[in-house]
Structures are given as structure tokens and as C-alpha cells.
From TrEMBL:
The lineage of its organism: Eukaryota, Metazoa, Ecdysozoa, Arthropoda, Hexapoda. It comes from Pararge aegeria aegeria. This is Jg12293 protein.
Length: 48
């Protein structure tokens, strides 16, 4: 059972890596930038 779980986990990680590689770096950067901007904006709103 552990071997099957390990193989499944390996396939999942491989799929995740493939998906990350398939995503365009600019799209990833934009989503990260938007996420950070939202975080910073909400923090500033909370402080005032």
C-alpha cells in the first residue's frame, strides 16, 4: 500500500511541476503581484 501511495504522490508532484512549467512566468508573476498588492492594501486599510 505504501508503494502505491508513494507512486501516486510522485505522479501528483510530477503533474504539479508540469503545470507550473506550463504556466507562463508572466502570468504567475502577475498573479503573485496582484496577491501581494491585495494583501498590502488590506493591511493598510486595517491600520487606519
Amino acid at each position: 500500500v505504501e508503494d502505491e501511495g508513494g507512486a501516486l504522490l510522485g505522479r501528483l508532484q510530477g503533474a504539479l511541476r508540469g503545470g507550473a512549467a506550463a504556466a507562463s512566468p508572466s502570468r504567475v508573476a502577475n498573479s503573485i503581484k496582484g496577491y501581494l498588492t491585495n494583501k498590502v492594501g488590506s493591511l493598510q486599510l486595517r491600520d487606519t
